[in-house]
From TrEMBL:
Pfam family, one: SBP_bac_11
Signal sequence segment: none
Annotated NCBIfam families: modA
PANTHER family: MOLYBDATE-BINDING PERIPLASMIC PROTEIN, TUNGSTATE_MOLYBDATE_CHROMATE-BINDING PROTEIN MODA
GO MF: metal ion binding; molybdate ion binding
Keywords: Metal-binding, Molybdenum, Signal
Name listed for the protein in its UniProt record: Molybdate ABC transporter substrate-binding protein
One GO BP: molybdate ion transport
KW RNA-binding (keyword) present: no
Amino acid sequence: MTEKIRFRKFNLFFYFVLFLWGFINSSLIAQAEEIQVAVATNFINPFKSVVKKFERKTGHKVIVISGSTGKLYAQITNGAPFDIFLSADSRRPELLIKQGYAVLGTQYTYALGKITLWSSNTNIISNSVESTLLKKKFSHIAIANPVTAPYGKAALQILKNLDQWDNLKPFIVQGENIGQTFQFVFSNNAELGFVALSQVLDPKNIHTGKRVDIPSDYYDPIKQDVVVLTKAGNSV
């Protein structure tokens, strides 16, 4: 592992330890032996690695629930007993604060998401997203649900900005979340798909397939925000 990667991983671990431990000590989560954290699917793997280190270091148990941002948001507004929400966008945490489900002043951007076009077959991806889509060396292209998943919304924006949405509609298969979307491509149920860059860079996948990165001006920034929920705030 290079020093740069090791430093990034340490920073990620250090941030979450400070974040979780800070809220426990400040009694927003009052001496909790167990914390329930709802995590957007695209961040589940790096978060789990942080949780293991956190639990070993502090003795506190972290229960991780993952899913699409939209579904987790719906569960929270329907009374799910989560303490912290790591969203894949900034809109849902803002809404939760306005609606009284999250604690004012606890929203914070923990990551900026990037989307990429990826295939497990290296022959399908060309040197740009435009040429890859125009060559149509595929029968299916996977995107996450644009209504519930921020990465699905970004994929829809990209296709519309390239004037390819109407042309490619018959080829699209839709994942419930970005995790399922990645699995469609990984298992070759779809020859390529719009997935999170973090999924492709995961050590388990980094040597698999080929990707083409997408200019950031093709889609709105994917600000991923974390927020403490009122279940935790009210437990003081």
